[in-house]
């Protein structure tokens, strides 16, 4: 078991607890359902309440009336940070949210500044609130750029990312120039980031208010709607992942956040998505909350009971997190008008049945779904209905299991990607060649003052672990 420095260990085994889930838009219902199936009591509050999870979970209107009832309060999104801080100071056990971590994710400029301050290798980026100034900048500084919304942006526009393909930036320039009037109405603050080629990969872990809980997670997101990374950006259409002891990728990114998260008393999940290549690891953005569909796929790979896990970290206790060996993938199942909000089209799919050729629902996780008279039906407004997971000793085994489960599902005009995890052979070769998956000593050895030891310069990535071992002697 991992030590956490305060003598606390997991003592919640076989006990039953009361969980209160608080959400803006029904994101964490599947986790709540899993915890309920483990025998715990669960209530959930959804601010933008609709019919999601009807027949699965008990919903409440005023969540604040139940804070004394709950043994654990779970916030599943950003925007609850100040409330989470207040409740923790009042002695409540809370998973999710802090003012600091909210700002890391929601304010790209602040997040990048923190990465740089803590020693991460950040890509050059420039923040704008004026499209004419941005166009002038691109013209004067030709290059390949990525355009990203920043600040407060509606969910409809938060996924409006432009990935430049021209080395002189002409494509991004023309798109912004021809669309600046409409963009300035919906995306008032934005960032231009230098583009770099490589493998997109995330390094993440759960944090218990004092330390990271290992193992850590390495994950590969697929955000475009169609296979081959074509089509519009979505929240995510699927993810492949595996659990690992801390490695170079984690140590050089998310692992550097430990002291700041401890100061913030943050409890929950944190991820840094990166682009990596032979020249370095470039962190792009924070996720300081459960990931979606990451949390669904994590249920495929975690053997430990989720109720006990959430209770333990909410009480700043250590936890021996048991996970499967091998790989997991998750495939998101949607229907029209996803990823857009067209009320007329959406209503065509309202209350449609979700049927299964065989009775098993193993590996099937809830999106916007309800149960009516024992039948699963579509619900809500997102057209994001299910996440289907699989696991295996190899990535191909995990793919085979997940897609066989997808074939068991019947939803009219359902849409899903067929290539989740398919690039693993190429991605893994590159990551291992660059040594980013090499394991390191964790927690890091105590830093020794320079006057006591002279460190030899590092000549290659492969010396990383060796140097850390020497420092600990």
TrEMBL record:
<keyword id="KW-0547">Nucleotide-binding</keyword>
<dbReference type="InterPro" id="IPR000115">
    <property type="entry name" value="PRibGlycinamide_synth"/>
</dbReference>
<feature type="domain" description="Phosphoribosylglycinamide synthetase C-domain">
    <location>
        <begin position="327"/>
        <end position="425"/>
    </location>
</feature>
<dbReference type="InterPro" id="IPR020561">
    <property type="entry name" value="PRibGlycinamid_synth_ATP-grasp"/>
</dbReference>
<dbReference type="GO" id="GO:0006164">
    <property type="term" value="P:purine nucleotide biosynthetic process"/>
</dbReference>
<keyword id="KW-0436">Ligase</keyword>
<dbReference type="GO" id="GO:0005524">
    <property type="term" value="F:ATP binding"/>
</dbReference>
<dbReference type="Pfam" id="PF01071">
    <property type="entry name" value="GARS_A"/>
</dbReference>
<keyword id="KW-0658">Purine biosynthesis</keyword>
<dbReference type="InterPro" id="IPR011054">
    <property type="entry name" value="Rudment_hybrid_motif"/>
</dbReference>
<dbReference type="InterPro" id="IPR020560">
    <property type="entry name" value="PRibGlycinamide_synth_C-dom"/>
</dbReference>
<protein>
    <recommendedName>
        <fullName>Glycinamide ribonucleotide synthetase</fullName>
    </recommendedName>
</protein>
<dbReference type="GO" id="GO:0004637">
    <property type="term" value="F:phosphoribosylamine-glycine ligase activity"/>
</dbReference>
<dbReference type="InterPro" id="IPR037123">
    <property type="entry name" value="PRibGlycinamide_synth_C_sf"/>
</dbReference>
<keyword id="KW-0067">ATP-binding</keyword>
<comment type="similarity">
    <text>Belongs to the GARS family.</text>
</comment>
<dbReference type="GO" id="GO:0009113">
    <property type="term" value="P:purine nucleobase biosynthetic process"/>
</dbReference>
